[in-house]
Amino acid sequence: MTNTKEYLQSWATSYKNDLTENILPFWLQNGLDKKHGGVYTCLDRKGSLMDTTKSVWFQGRFAFVAATAYSEIEANPKYLEAAKSCIDFIEKYCFDSDGRMYFEITQDGRGIRKRRYVFSESFAVIAYAAYAKASKDDSFAHKALKLFKRMQYFLSTPNFLPSKYEDWVKGKGHSITMIMLNTAAQVRKVIKDPILDKQINDSIYLLKNDFLKPEFKALLESVGENGEFVDTLNGRLINPGHCIETAWFLLEEANYRNWDNDIKNLALTILDWSWDWGWDEPYGGIINFRDCKGFPCQDYAQDMKFWWPQTEAIIATLYAYWATNDPKYLKNHQLISDWTYKHFPDKEFGEWYGYLHRDGTIAQNAKGNIFKGPFHIPRMMIKGYELCNEILKQ
């Protein structure tokens, strides 16, 4: 890297152009359901529909992305229309009679199944919040806050959500902790409420005091009821992508608090440790899973390279460089960007592949399914564009 300013200007331009000329057009053309509303995500390499089952996660996720692109990148009316289509589909079809949301749903709105967690709700919340900002309709800010409070009720009410394990097995999960942190922060952008600040503070406390394990230099995916280390395959699991995503959520909060040193240092510690666990020195890219004691991981995809950890690393390294001006983070941004852009984008049919083998060869070439769709990649491009421009202002 010879010129930092040119490097950042080049990436800012690339993020914006790729978002508006490749990623969003791919999904607006191939994914939107013009008959029933909402978005399909089960698309093959060329964008043809493989399955009409709809991911409820992505009704919220795409609404969030499209509304945020409208607010932060360009006020293209197609973005706002897409966001509203997904939100309308959510409100009409995606809630069950008990107030919880489905996980999968038919194209015309019949519930297929729910799952034990509240991630569908979290993505609907951030969709409402982003749409409130984009449309300047405050009613959606209130909807976001109301649904967020309902999530808290679901999580805090004993036996309301199905348990993963038998009753005697108690524990805490990193995923919901990080999700609640970010979801509260997104809602706070459009409406103020003490419960949002409390949730953010509580999540930060748990991350620092329960999930962060200095003896392993790792942030673990699960711990015991009181934050204790559980010496099992699941208890030793490190998900570097999740950890790196948490790091930039924390950097965003540190920035909100005028670069609060404690939160910033926590974020940088998590990022540094997780990069060391995640960066695959022989092949490049962020690997899926590690065991904090070095044992083999149980998950069958443990050594694959998925699309989303790479995008989280791109955001986090830029955020860390903005926070510190330390050139090692810009070097890591270049490492992860060079590897990611060499292997994931489909130069012939657009969008990105999602699933690679460890060496970067393509495992399968579909552009979407129930779990992959228009979220991590466009969110990275939006955040990357914003961060490059913030750094350039300095």
From TrEMBL:
Pfam families listed in its UniProt record: GlcNAc_2-epim
InterPro entries: 6-hairpin_glycosidase_sf, 6hp_glycosidase-like_sf, AGE/CE
Top-rank taxon: Bacteria
GO MF term list: isomerase activity
Protein name from the UniProt record: N-acylglucosamine 2-epimerase
UniProt KW Ribosomal protein keyword: no
Gene Ontology annotations of biological process type: carbohydrate metabolic process
Keywords of this entry: Isomerase
Sequence similarity: Belongs to the N-acylglucosamine 2-epimerase family.
